[in-house]
Design goal:
This protein is an alpha+beta fold. It is 23% helix and 39% strand.
Length: 140
């Protein structure tokens, strides 16, 4: 299992009129975190295209706990909460930390693997399942 973390600096375009991180940017950073995780494991999005699969999102749950302001650095982790036995469906949780280590948000994604040609859910190739199994599980 790989502990994966990645960081982002909050830019001017990322904040709302109250000068804190816009809720949609939390989600954008989470998406980029998953992309970085897959790439670090050698599974680029170009490779997913070659394999004819892509991730789709059914829903998200967001819990915002602490304000994140302009120019702050936030760190995201990427943890596997659930994975179906065939690898088709998954739940991934991201914890978002402020630079002082405080938990700023919790983001939970429910998703699945999608066959890009057939346009339906699919069991992902073994290469994808292997990478999913490298994700650190959520401690319950």
């Amino acid at each position: 299992m790989n502990e994966f973390r990645t960081s982002f600096e909050v830019r001017w375009s990322d904040v709302d009129p109250n000068m804190h991180l816009r809720h949609t940017v939390y989600l954008d950073y989470a998406d980029q975190t998953r992309i970085r995780f897959f790439e670090q494991q050698g599974l680029s999005f170009n490779r997913l295209l070659e394999l004819n699969v892509g991730p789709i999102i059914f829903g998200t749950q967001s819990n915002f706990l602490k304000e994140v302001l302009l120019s702050e650095e936030v760190t995201y982790d990427c943890r596997l909460l659930e994975l179906s036995s065939d690898g088709r469906k998954w739940v991934i949780k991201h914890n978002v930390y402020k630079s002082d280590g405080q938990l700023a948000a919790e983001l939970t994604y429910k998703g699945a693997w999608f066959d890009l040609k057939a346009r339906k859910l699919t069991v992902p190739p073994e290469e994808v399942r292997n990478v999913m199994n490298l994700m650190t599980p959520v401690e319950q």
